[in-house]
Design brief:
The chain is α+β, with helices and mostly antiparallel strands. It is built from 13 helices and 14 strands. The termini are far apart. The model has no long low-confidence stretch (mean pLDDT 91).
């Protein structure tokens, strides 16, 4: 056991220093981004090279139902082989005993990667970049709300009460006083992140009531997706310690901004180590423009992955801090594609479309896939936009059904993400959407019952 412990990442070994490891959580992300797996005694984990789970976990909808005939052979559960990636071993510091989490990769009995496992989808896309000699680099930004405990879905979600005893106030972006209101929760987020070896680039108050943003340092897409996957769990656990909920819904509170997962992209030439988006004299390269063109061309079809629920589309409203179109501009937060101010070495492209409710592996994968298609198709983007993009027309789907139609027809995107993944994802999301359409909302009862 001690030899195995010595191979763990530094943060995990530091967490266990002088302590006896009790349990290991063997986990994998499903399509919504929920951790699925098994908790096993540490002594058993030390003796096993893999464990089994049914592949049906990737056919399950957010409500717990199953995508009809998601398996091309019919609905037949087959066991997958889950193998640990020990580089992901990290603490679960909120547990009552000494527990580690380890992310596993999913394979079939022949050793092939399961094509609809979200982590495998992202690895597939990253590998396509590597084959071109490029190293993709991403930096995600995580927005979320701290809200009052909500035990009845019929009740509206309300902001949590801060240290002052007053509900969190809206329109206090970047206010340090507002951040201090959530001090105890934020302290636990920092403590949990430190125990897990995660580096937070900063926490700020966003524009919504009780809305915070965490920025992560740029790096490898798979590693950063692992961190977002872990962060969602640790933030929820920190909130529960203080009698509130953390929610990553795209739009949890009416008349408040939604929560995004902005994704910053850059490319490194593997051979030279230079930023592919910058030329020898520091200017913008053709690859820079091709990447932007790929986002403009393919993001409408990719939206079903980056905005995966009916609630997701409530973000895309004029003047509510979310884009309504795919214009691109420099240092302009009203556009869907933004080029932040930077030097040539750190030149990057920001995708502001993705919602925080998306699966981080899939959101990053599909954003990279759009850029990859632009690089290979070598298209040019529309002219740079100047002014307020909210004054223009929207050019992204406004409802889930429309987004799914575009995704189903996006054959070039399917080839990058994997046709089997695209098939299963489309079936599962269509099942969720059709289930939603059977629900009658309070708005319909209030305005239509006696008036139509």
């Amino acid at each position: 056991m001690s030899d195995w412990i010595n191979t763990l990442p530094d943060a995990a070994r530091a967490y266990l220093d002088g302590r006896r490891l009790d349990e290991v959580e063997c986990i994998v992300s499903d399509l919504p981004g929920i951790a699925r797996g098994k908790a096993v005694p540490a002594s058993k984990f030390a003796k096993q090279d893999y464990f089994h789970l049914p592949d049906s976990i990737f056919y399950q909808t957010i409500t717990g139902d199953w995508g009809e005939a998601a398996d091309e052979d019919g609905f037949i559960e087959k066991d997958m082989i889950l193998k640990p990636d020990m580089s992901t071993a990290t603490a679960a510091p909120w547990t009552g005993d000494w527990t580690l989490q380890v992310i596993h990769d999913a394979y079939d009995r022949d050793g092939n990667a399961i094509p609809f496992s979200p982590r495998n989808v992202l690895k597939r896309v990253v590998d396509l970049y590597h084959k071109k000699g490029w190293e993709p680099v991403v930096a995600p930004e995580m927005e979320f709300f701290l809200v009052a405990r909500n035990l009845d879905p019929a009740h509206e979600i309300k902001p949590m009460k801060g240290r002052s005893g007053r509900p969190a106030a809206a329109r206090q972006a970047y206010s340090m006083t507002a951040v201090d209101e959530f001090g105890p929760v934020i302290d636990d987020i920092y403590d949990f992140a430190e125990a897990q070896g995660f580096e937070i680039d900063g926490i700020t108050q966003e524009g919504g009531a009780g809305q915070l943003e965490i920025n992560l340092r740029h790096g490898d897409p798979v590693k950063l997706a692992d961190e977002v996957f872990y962060f969602k769990r640790l933030i929820r656990e920190a909130a529960l310690r203080h009698d509130c909920f953390a929610t990553f819904m795209a739009k949890p509170i009416a008349n408040e901004p939604g929560s995004a997962m902005h994704i910053h992209h850059s490319l490194i030439d593997i051979e030279t180590g230079k930023n592919v988006f910058s030329g020898p004299q520091g200017g913008e390269t053709d690859a820079f423009y091709h990447f932007i063109a790929g986002l403009q061309t393919h993001l409408p079809a990719a939206l079903a992955v980056m905005a995966p629920y009916v609630n997701s589309y409530r973000r895309y409203v004029k003047d509510q801090a979310a884009p309504i179109n795919l214009e691109w501009a420099r240092d302009n937060r009203t556009t869907g594609i933004r080029v932040p101010l930077s030097g040539p070495e750190s030149r990057r492209v920001e995708n502001r479309i993705a919602g925080m409710d998306c699966n981080p592996y899939l959101g990053i994968a599909v954003s990279l896939a759009c850029g990859y298609l632009g690089l290979t198709e070598q298209d040019r983007p529309r002219r740079q936009f100047y002014g307020d993009a909210y004054e223009g027309d929207g050019d992204i789907p406004q409802v889930m059904g429309q987004a799914l139609d575009l995704f189903d027809q996006a054959h070039a995107l399917h080839q990058v993400l994997g046709p089997d993944f695209a098939r299963v994802y489309g079936i599962v999301k269509r099942s969720e959407y059709e289930e939603f359409l059977q629900v009658i909302s309070p708005w319909e009862r209030e305005h239509l019952l006696l008036n139509v």
